[in-house]
């Protein structure tokens, strides 16, 4: 069922709300999915706010691509594979900000958990008890997987 929901999002089928961004970019979504995932969206679409009437939301403080990753999480409860490039850490920080803004606690906890694991792994890899070959192999594995 989750893959079907994500497919509806990716194909932009039966969307009933449109998010608009700087530069004219826009993306559709489904109010029921957004409301189920975020109390902020619930309040937005069940009130007398302009967004509940127009079904249009202007996003000025979140990058378009980051917002797509955020919406994919709302539809699938998974963070889509992020490019491990120079923007990787920044993208994670921006996703955390979006999760904070829309009170999506599960997404914030996901990153906190992963951050904790990475920190522990780095401490272990820096340990003098780990033979140099194991350290190099472990670092190579972490860097490329």
From TrEMBL:
<feature type="domain" description="BTB">
    <location>
        <begin position="15"/>
        <end position="83"/>
    </location>
</feature>
<dbReference type="Pfam" id="PF00651">
    <property type="entry name" value="BTB"/>
</dbReference>
<dbReference type="GO" id="GO:0005737">
    <property type="term" value="C:cytoplasm"/>
</dbReference>
<dbReference type="GO" id="GO:0030162">
    <property type="term" value="P:regulation of proteolysis"/>
</dbReference>
<dbReference type="GO" id="GO:0043161">
    <property type="term" value="P:proteasome-mediated ubiquitin-dependent protein catabolic process"/>
</dbReference>
<dbReference type="InterPro" id="IPR011333">
    <property type="entry name" value="SKP1/BTB/POZ_sf"/>
</dbReference>
<dbReference type="GO" id="GO:0031625">
    <property type="term" value="F:ubiquitin protein ligase binding"/>
</dbReference>
<dbReference type="InterPro" id="IPR000210">
    <property type="entry name" value="BTB/POZ_dom"/>
</dbReference>
<dbReference type="GO" id="GO:0005634">
    <property type="term" value="C:nucleus"/>
</dbReference>
<protein>
    <recommendedName>
        <fullName>BTB domain-containing protein</fullName>
    </recommendedName>
</protein>
